[in-house]
Amino acid sequence: MKRFWAKIRAGVWAGAAALRRRATALWEAGRGFLRAYGWPPLRRAAEFLLAWLKALRIRVLPPLLDLVFLGYLWLATSIAVSFAATGRVAYTLLSWEWFVLVVGVTGALWSAWDQTLGLKVVRHRLSPASPGMRLLYALFWPLFPLTLVTALVDREGRSPAEWFTDLRLVEAGEARPRRWYRSPTGWLAVLGLGVSLAAAVAVTRVDLRAFVTRFEKTLKFWRAIFSPAWDQAGLGLKLLVETLFMAVVATAFAVPVAAALSFLAARNLMRGPLPRLLYTVLRVTGSFTRSIDAIIWAIIFAVWVGTGSFAGVLALFVHSVVDLMKLYAEQIEAIDPGPVEAITATGANRLQVLRYGVIPQIINPFISFTLYRWDINVRMATVVGLVGGGGIGFRLAWYLGAYAFSEATMLTLLIVLMVWSIDWLSARIREKLA
Amino acid sequence: MAHVVVENLSKIYERGKVRALWNVNFSVEKGEFLVLIGLSGSGKSTLLRCINRLVEPTSGRVFLNGLELTRLSPRAMRRVRRRIGMIFQQFNLVKRATVLQNVLAGRLGYTSTLPSLLGWFPKRDIQRAKECLERVGLLDKMYVRADQLSGGQQQRVGIARALMQEPELLLADEPVSALDPATSHSVMQYIEQINKEDGVTVIASLHFLSLARRYGQRILALRAGEVVFDGPPEAIDDRKFKEIYGEEAEEVEIR
Ligand SMILES: Nc1ncnc2c1ncn2[C@@H]1O[C@H](COP(=O)(O)OP(=O)(O)O)[C@@H](O)[C@H]1O
Ligand SMILES: [Mg+2]
Questions:
Q1: A226-235, A262-271, A418-427: least confidently modelled range
Q2: Is B92–A341 a contact, with Cβ atoms under 8 angstroms apart?
Q3: Residue A79 lies in a domain
Q4: Which of A107, A341, A363, B55 has the smallest number of CB atoms closer than 10 Å to its CB?
């Protein structure tokens, strides 16, 4: 027992030391660049930052994948268990704080011991596979689920999964609104935020004086911002079209898939035990997939299929399918059952009832949701580009990294123009449909 | 042989364990106009829907022309439904579709699936739809969206949709409850006309006893899912009325 604790202590110390070394090395490297390259250091700094981000990607992706995988596994298990225990398809066994904690901790421990799905996917082993590093890893990953602090904002103490679906993760009787300071999540979040903030301040060495003393160094940057490189307009337009196509392709492929799935994810159409199971699985998986941001999907796909517009399209596609599925399904759930009943009474068959009783009621909202999603996808296409999803965003990230601010400004102008016009167009069309 | 025969019909809704109908027996002759009355919640809608099996009865049998509907497969039931028109309290039109499209929908049971999914109807059906609309006085509204019409007009579209089915039986679930008195009579007169001129058997639930007296040849009263009266309108006296509607009820006239 004593030896065990001694080992743990040694692990923590080693981990802390490693972290300190890393932070120092980072800082020294930054200083070194500044010293070595004198006046135009930012270009180098940006390059360094980019390389660092790339390394971070390899570091972040496996645990991310692990968490996603474990999350799905956990949901499936709890649905199965609750089905076996109560005979109902419900997700009511454990409150969601426990869900987050268990998945987070398991993911962390699992990742720390190097043999995980995420690592296999990325085919990467933690470089200094020392016990200390592993322990540090294990200690830090529970902070990851803090992305779910959104739950704090909700007065009724519901989890994000509950906002997106109409599932209730706790039994109705227990679901009393709770103050954040009375829930374990609240404390976990505050603790996590505090630690992260402290760590962030320490690592980045917040130095307010730099605002004043280093201002003249950014003059070049400001000057570049106000002198867009007009010669980039041609290339920019080409990339803009590519980005637009990314959004169009992702939306176009997502619509039929989402439309088909939405009928299976509509409560009022899915009656009976088996359909209900399918409904629940679709809704839960959907909301889980939705809560993973398109940017993260883009990172995953950029690793999977390589950087480029295909990865971007895939990310947008996945996110659009689950998003549209939910929007469509809610529309189907909101239809007036009267016409459906009336058409059934005339002796029409199921397909005819769908065509004449259901579809006329949902077609306009469907089109309007699709446009809305396309609108989002155009914007997102740029953003996923920044993390390796191709299109104009990818080039923009590249220019920024290369300190080519005039060129970056040009591209930004084009993006703004595109987003504005798409926004305007889709708002106009949706107005007509209403 | 009676046109419609209902035997020992019961319906218990699983959800809430409501006994909506209990051992209901009656029969309707061909061409008869039967009116169902009863307080709301007494089971009128459930009874009408058990006849065309929009609601599945818990037990009991329903016959149409001697054919036992309660034993039919879903497919065979759809064939029978083609000859049973139905109109609803809330009209149940597809609001975003035009009047013509709504009326044509009455023909779906006779149309093969693929063309109907593409929105193709035979020429003679379109001709027929126009005739039905002419009959309810709405030919000029053919291409208007259903939600642009007044309540009375919408119910007339509902009647035209039922007429498209060439029904032998018309089920009407409180067809005028959402309408004002004057419009109510105009709509009821169309239904009466279908009954008198086309010889269509009508089973209609009505809210007001005065309307039931005016249009019904025979009245069937339900209370808490059981038949408490079955006979001619004249036979409902003050005592019977209180038995159907409860002690506190007052008869209201609707002109
Ligand atoms: N789908 C349903 N599920 C459960 N109970 C129902 C349902 N439809 C009707 N009921 C119940 O059955 C009873 C009869 O209702 P209904 O046939 O609609 O009466 P009415 O048409 O005379 O107002 C009521 O108590 C009602 O609450
Ligand atoms: Mg009713």
A1: A226-235
A2: yes
A3: yes
A4: A363
Q: What sign for the dihedral angle of Cα A355, A360, A362, A367?
A: positive
What does pLDDT average to over chain A? 74
Question: What percent of chain A has a predicted confidence (pLDDT) above 70?
Answer: 57
Same domain? For A175 and A231 the reply is: no
Residue the block writes with tokens 């999350």: A71
Domain-ending residue, one of A16, A31, A59: A59
* pLDDT tens-digit series, residues B162-199: 999 999 999 999 999 989 988 999 999 999 999 999 99
Which own/partner pairs from A229-233 qualify as long-range (CB within 8 Å, at least 24 positions apart)? A229/A404, A229/A406, A229/A407, A229/A409, A229/A410, A230/A410, A232/A406, A232/A407, A232/A410, A232/A411, A233/A410, A233/A414
- B20 in ligand 1 pocket by Cβ < 6 Å? yes
Contact yes or no for A370/A262 (Cβ under 8 A): no
pTM over 0.80: no
- Number of domains comprising chain A: 3
Q: Would residue A211 count as lying in a domain?
A: no
pLDDT at A124: 53
Q: B1-83+169-255: which CATH topology? A: Rossmann fold (3.40.50)
C-beta B42 within 6 A of ligand 1: yes
* Domain residue extents for chain B: 1-83+169-255, 90-166
Question: What are the chain A neighbours of B97 within 8 Å (beta carbons)?
Answer: 356, 360
> How far, in Å, are A46, A101, A150, A222, A247 from residue A104 at the CA level?
33, 5, 16, 43, 33
A257 and A383 together in one domain: yes
In a domain, residue A219? The reply is no
Which is it for the CA torsion B91, B93, B98, B102, positive or negative? negative
* Domain residue limits at A116: 61-198
Residues A116 and A25 both lie in one domain: no
Interface test with B, best of A331, A341, A346 (most B CBs within 10 A): A346
Same-domain status, A143 and A260 = no
CATH number at residue A275: 1.10.3720.10
B91 to chain A, any CB pair closer than 8 A? The answer is yes
Residues A71 and A132 placed together within one structural domain of the fold: yes
Over 60: is that where the pLDDT of A158 sits? no
Output the pLDDT for position A325: 94
- The pLDDT score that the predictor gives to residue A227 is 77
Q: Is the pLDDT of residue A360 over 70?
A: yes
User: Do both A424 and A409 map to the same domain?
Assistant: yes
What average pLDDT does the structure give for chain B? 92
